[in-house]
Amino acid sequence: MAKRSTPEINASSMADIAFLLLIFFLVTTTMDVDTGIQRQLPPIPEKDQKTDVEVNKRNVYQVLVNSRGTISVNNHWVNSLEELREGAKEFINCDRADDPDLPEMEEIVVEGIKTPVKTSKGLISLQNDRGTTYGRYIEVQNELVAAYNEIRNEAARKYFNKPYDELSDEQQEAIRKIYPQRISEAEPKNYGGK
Amino acid sequence: MEESNMAVMGKKKKKTLGAISTASLPDIVFMILFFFMVSTTMREVELLIELKGSDLPTATEIKKLEKKSLVSYIYVGKPLQQYQKTYGTEPKIQLNSSFAELSDIYEYILAERAERDEAEVPFMTTSLKVHRDTKMGIITDIKQELRKASALKINYSARQDMGY
Questions:
Q1: pTM of the prediction?
Q2: What is the DSSP string of B117-160?
Q3: Contacts of A33 in chain B (CB under 8 A)
Q4: What number is the ipTM of this complex?
């Protein structure tokens, strides 16, 4: 083959091509990060295991959401989500005197905190009707998680002088030991049909 | 030509300002392009149900889903208009890219598990992407199925609540 000088390729349209691709990816990109409420389901109980563990009544904060989205706690109506949150906080809180209406407490030693601390045996039980809407259910879940988060924050400030998010992993673990998130999603009951 | 022109316009300036070189423009654009190509996550499944971003419930206490490769999704919602003739308007479950029945969830979880490394199985999460107007009945059934498959880590997909 005869050696021919290859003319230089005109690269001026390169920018246009690149722009075109760029715009395509810009449009198709969905940078959505998946967010949500993290939850742990209870394992299915073994067959021979007794399903109903006797829990002292004062240790249970029974939240019920009916099909119209109305909330009741221990058979009393709750009018607003704020009220629910405040009530839950009061229930969870261990930094208080003993009260026969609030859950039992026991003293435990937590690594990282010098003095023994009190932790409650309280349990939040969340029950819903089959006709409750998902949106309402999440609202209630959110409120209960918020109650825990606020209480943990308060404890974190008390013991470590920092909000919960800024604590080290060990410190967070300690706080979680004092305030374990105990929200049980009990088996649903069908109250009065769909 | 140009020099004399410039000299007329700005007498004080001695140096002339030539046109800005655009030779590096393709490079810059390519750089941005690569950034977007890498960060792009195209939606892997086409939704057969009505579930826009705004149909998810809102919450304030949300956490980011870490390790997307370990997440399996369950979608629940009303079938899209074009499927309503065959599937009705009642909320349906979608797994991968097809409608599914409750009983399929168990198999689905097992299949998802088989795809992953054994060491990663305990960290697998099931994300429930559910339309906010769905009734809890179907969700409860799904939760029961997940318990049976002992896929206990779940995530109720929700958007950040932007204040009241």
A1: 0.74
A2: -GGGGGG-EEEEEE-TTSBHHHHHHHHHHHHHTT--EEEEE-EE
A3: 64-65
A4: 0.71
